[in-house]
Each structure stands twice: as structure tokens, then as C-alpha cells.
Predict the structure.
Amino acid sequence: MSLVVSGATVVATPRGRAALAGELQRAVELLPGAVVRCEGTAIVFVGDRHEHDRRFQKPDEVLDAAGGTVIPGFVDPHTHLPFAGTREDEFDRRLAGETYSQIAASGGGIVATVQATRKASFDELLGLTLERLDRQLLNGTTTTEAKSGYGLELETELKQLRVLREAARRHPVEIVPTAMPAHEVPPEWRHDPDGYVELVVGQIHPAIGAQKLAEGVDVFCERGVFSPHQTRRLLADARRYGWRVHLHADELCDLGGAKLAADLGAASASHLLHTNDEGIQALARRGVVGVVLPGVSFFLRERYAPVRLLIHAEVPVALATDCNPGSSHTESMPAIIALACLGAGLTTEEALVAATLNAAAALGRADRIGTLEPGKQADLVVLNAPSPKHLAYHFGVNLVRHVVKAGKLVVRDGALVQR
């Protein structure tokens, strides 16, 4: 099956098979009037229409970009998709002046979602996850990471990850599953957090590993959650299973999480709102991708991560939604790009790279997704806009017209193609 996307004002894409950092993070190639040809699941040509017509036969299908912009499919490298329940009452409490920490201390926060997720059946959780994947796809996301972490005990952690496995079978969005039993200390272990760490190491990790339910592991390294010492213990154990290592780092305070991520050779460190200069330099030296979550800053009305310092230090910056019910309830990468530019201070070019190639690098997939180049997987988005700058400039609307995933048209004219 061959598919050609033609009629675009411009094809805009980074290039390469590794994360871009520093000045190179602005390196977006603009190809006016170019066409993209997909054969099977792969891209085989990106370039001039006349050159294409000279080299290739007529395709099986032509997708008209109608003067829009063609970009790589978005990669969302940090989400918490498989959860039950919502927390709009907490949202109102924050609007009234309570902090995230105060709400968590009163029994809300992550623990409230844990209770709802433990109660949800497999089918209920699967249905909710598929709905969120639909919204991601309609907003141009073709690959997403998704974490467990709303179980905090063996059976629900396994349930969340099995839901992700089943969702991956049913849905075109590619899912990268991450185990996160160390998302919070559950209420029944608050008297003995070290004991919970040993439970994770002794029971939860082995069960996840035996069933091959995860590609990576994440830990919330934060004051009142998991200490740097406990985080080292958890992630050292995770290495036994060959999992990619990630950290929630320096979100609420400077606990040295960024430096710890570098010391451990993590693939990514997320949040980074309070990271200090030493941490930033450590991330740069080790090439750890800094995953910035501007939706959290916006939703919680907190500071933004120091993206200009990260870029200047040549830390590769990625963007993610952090889709979750408590601190960033959105599946929209275009919304995150707008916030990253208007709130955090990225340029539109830096934001596009952060939402595609660098996000793919955070998930160990930069060799096959994140750019529009021959040999890469055919994941692309057609925007109803004449320039990629409109992702931030024309904010608050969904500009996604068409989406192609692995060479198949999965969104046409803003609607899902039936699975």
C-alpha cells in the first residue's frame, strides 16, 4: 500500500536519529510544496513533487494537504493514561488557594486516584484509556508513553499495565508502557516507606518483569514521596530487567533529582521546575533528555521549568502533556506547545523539535520516529495551517486535519477513521 501526501504549503521537520540540543534544537527544515510518500509502514521519499513523479509510480492513495502544513506525528513522552476517576473538586480547592501539597496531605491528590483505579474493573479502565487515546490521536499524537502508578499494590499495578497492553492491540496510537509503582507511598505503608520500597523490589518489579509488561520504570523523587536514597534503590533494581530509567525530578523543590538522573544514566528527567545549575550541567554532560511539562505549571499556577537555561546548557528538551487527573488534565500536545512557547519561553521551532524528535529520544525511539525522512516510520500530521508556527500563534483550537500512523490514515478531516 502506497500513500502520497501532497498539496502542502510546507513540510516542516527536524532531521536525525538522536536528540537535538542547544542551538540545534531550532533546526527545523522547511520544504515548501514538498510531498511525502509512504510505502507500507515507512517513508520512502520527502521532497519535490516533480522529482517524486519522475522516480515513482502513481500511488494507491493520495491525501490532499489542501495548503496545510505537514509535520511528524507528535510523541508524548510522559503521561499517566490508565486511571479512573476525576478530581475537579480538588481543582476548585486550588482555585480557592489551597496548594497541591495541602490537598495531598488531606487525603487527596494521587491517593484519591489510587482509590478509584483500584475499584475500577479491567474493562472500565480499558474503556477510559481508549477514550484518552482517541483524544490524543485527534490532537496529532501518534506515539505515547503511559505509566502505571495509580495502583501502588501488585494487582492494580498489573491491571494498569495489562490495560495498556490490550489498548496497544486495539488502538493505532503506539504505546510505550512504563511501570511506576513508586508514584507515591500508599496509605497502608505510610508508617514504613522503606518497607514499601522493599515490596516494590521484592514483589511488584519481579511480577511486571516476568510478564514483560513494561519498557521502562519511573520514580517520583520528591520530598515527602521517595528520597534520593530510596530512588537509587528502586532504579538500581529496575536495571536488572533491562528497563529504561526515568525520574520525576525537582518538581516541588530542589532535591537534587536532576543530578541523580544524570548519575543513574536515566533516559529522561521530567518536571525540573526547581532544578539548580549543577543539576542542569549534569543533565547536559550525560545527554539526559529534560522533559518539560508546561501543562502542570499552567494547571497548578506554578513556575515554569527554566527552559532557556536548559537550552543554553545544551540539555535536549522534550515536551509532554503529563496527562493525569490532578495536575494536567489534557491529552493535547498542541495545547502543550502553545504553553511551552507563551509560558515557558521556547521558540516555535524548539517546541516542534521538543514534541517530535526529542520526545522520541526520551523513549529510545529517535532512530525510527520523530522526523519525516526516508527510512523512518510513516507517522505524520497534516495541520490546517500554512506554517507550523500556527501551533502556538493560533492557540486554543485543534488545527489537526489528518493523521497518518505507520502508513495508514487514522484521522481524516478531523474525525477518527473507524478502527
In short: The chain has a mean pLDDT of 97. The first helix runs from residue 49 to 55. The chain has two domains: 2-72+370-416, 75-362.
